[in-house]
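Internal ticket #5521
Category: modeling
Description: The requester needs a full-assembly model to guide mutagenesis choices. All entity lines are attached below as received. Residue total reported by intake: 392.
Assigned to: D.W.
Attached entities:
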Amino acid sequence: MGKKKGQRKEHIYKVAQNLFRERGYAATSMRDLATAVGIEAASLYNHIRSKEEILQGICADIANQFFLALNPIKELDLTADQKLKRAIHAHIQVITNNLDASAVFLHEWRFLSEPFLSEFKTMRSNYEADYVQIIEKGIEEGVFKTIDPKFYCLTLFSSLNWIYEWYKPDGKFTVYEISKQLSHLLLNGIRKTEIV
Amino acid sequence: MGKKKGQRKEHIYKVAQNLFRERGYAATSMRDLATAVGIEAASLYNHIRSKEEILQGICADIANQFFLALNPIKELDLTADQKLKRAIHAHIQVITNNLDASAVFLHEWRFLSEPFLSEFKTMRSNYEADYVQIIEKGIEEGVFKTIDPKFYCLTLFSSLNWIYEWYKPDGKFTVYEISKQLSHLLLNGIRKTEIV
DNA sequence: CCTACCGATCGGTAGG
DNA sequence: CCTACCGATCGGTAGG
């Protein structure tokens, strides 16, 4: 019984992730969601408390996954560029394993109400700070150029967080190839002979 | 008289750009817009035909600006990396000169109805194709590594199109500095010694 | 540019 | 999980 109800809830979340991604959170009605699930709108409330609860669940889940992927890498005894490579790979894996949910996480978080909105922003700041730290260490070690760490970090994330837009699980690139090429590009650029 | 009405319309568009960016197109009501403008909701319709007409206007305007900025550069007799640098600078200028409108253009276009939606997608494809062409030429010329042009292009745009999120006109970086640093980063990476 | 109002749809609840 | 329904709000119109 409890198991069956959990499965249904799971299903509602999966469908919601897809609809919120495709149409946006605000433009997706509970009737849209119910129809896609195959039940009446009122019946949704036997499984979830509110529309926003679904959004909260999606955002918390993805946030958690990002930290679970990054935390072990932080402790490793590696040079900054190797550490950054691993972090990039971990981040890409979370996105490609959760295409719909990642898209919602990245674009629909602004519809969270307090205190979830503030929690989200704090969490995101912490995550970015971890990356900034790796980059700062790399500059100290002389592995990286003396670029502004925050600026580099924003550029890096923009590239990583765009992947859900074009990545296809059965496309021409594997996750490993994307990760390798993106790391290479952002670490070494595309120009053959560097002009200083 | 006609001039006064045009000014009001202009003002409605400016306010709409800001609201659509902050709250999203779907979550912004015509009453929100009217209140922010300082009139009643019904009065908006003396200046605009519909909510979507505003979105269409914003998207068309920004699309036009991107092409106006890029077209003259395409004809120039420059190496691919120099041409790409100029294109990047032009693209960044359009975004930083139209922060609200660019954000709407980049994220709210999916609420366009047909035929505007199809027109938008075609236009965007053409713009991307212009960049791909520059990159392909650079690979032929031996200026660029043999990276996948489409892949590089997507990464490039993701970095450029993220700028509106953090750029502040009175911030620590000028538009010229951002453009220079971003070109440098994406052309040369951040690693000091390239590992092949 | 306003008041007054339209039908449609919204998130959610009552009660079974 | 359903039928029936709530008050609120939506984009937009009529008429002045």
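Resolution: model delivered.
Comment from assignee: Chain A touches chain B through 38 residues (CB under 8 Å).
Ticket closed.
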